[in-house]
Amino acid sequence: MVACELEQKDLNAFPGVTLFTKRQAPGMKPTAVYLPPKHVTAATKFDVVIWLHGFYVRDHEFLFHNDPARLREQVRDSGKDVVLIAPFLGYEYAVGHSFAGNYNVKDLAAPKWGERYLEEILGALAKFLGASSNSIPQLQVGKLVIACHSGGGNAMRNLVGSLGKYQSNLTACWGFDCLYGAGAQPDDATFWYQWLSGQNGCALEIVYGPSTLPQSVKLDLIGRGLATIDGDRAQPQRPALKNLSVSLGHYDSFPAFGQMVRVNDLDPAFVDRFMIPQVADQPRLNHKPAPQHGEFLQHAISNVRDAFPFPKDIHYMIARGGFFSRLSKL
Question: CA-CA-CA-CA torsion for 261, 262, 268, 269, nearest 10 degrees?
């Protein structure tokens, strides 16, 4: 059987240790691995972040060399000692109004795929680290975080169910502009709400832009107990999930609605002011029509889309800024 093997590249060209698979075990993915300068190479137990990319990634080396998310830079600049593991999931690209390519994440949902994948990569990393000492270390995972961007949201959804023995290590999932699954069964918002409702200890943080706004707003409202899964106003309001955070993506700092807004610093009441206008803000009607099915959610989605000034380049800005800020707090 072919064993997974890592080789070092970018020596003296980028701080830390950059590794790429030159061969991978059957059924695994070509992978990029990054150990930041702060990583203690003698450590046998460390925190791991798995990054699941979206479309427009040509190969696993592109992830570190060309992808606008600039993953290595965010890990390096965060100053945290984490090992970044980024599998290549395929190359998908736009052709007119549709997509072509070989991006596929179905196998990530196979029983214990995540466990087997981590075992292969950790085994290859152990061989690399032990090559100079003729003693192969036994590596262990401390905290495990799954982060995804864009189309990688479907990959994260699949991977959380196939971690096997590493399920207990999972402390957080970070999704950056990734909830595209309105047509999935169940849709993304419902899936994550149900998954979090049955979890103990794992947190989910979502940052969204205009392209993933509908499912993100839905998850936010049902997660805070303000809406039902069907999109109606929850009457009475339900208990909120304590392990969920959904926030708007934006510039690091910019003026909006008479105040300076900063990343991760939007007051929920400020967001709700335009997401869910209060009764006093509504035009007075003598005969208010009965609400339609899902109308509460649809109005909230429209309100955010109309009121919030998303920058044009927000998609990758969310990936960079969101990833960095969360790494810094890890």
Answer: -20
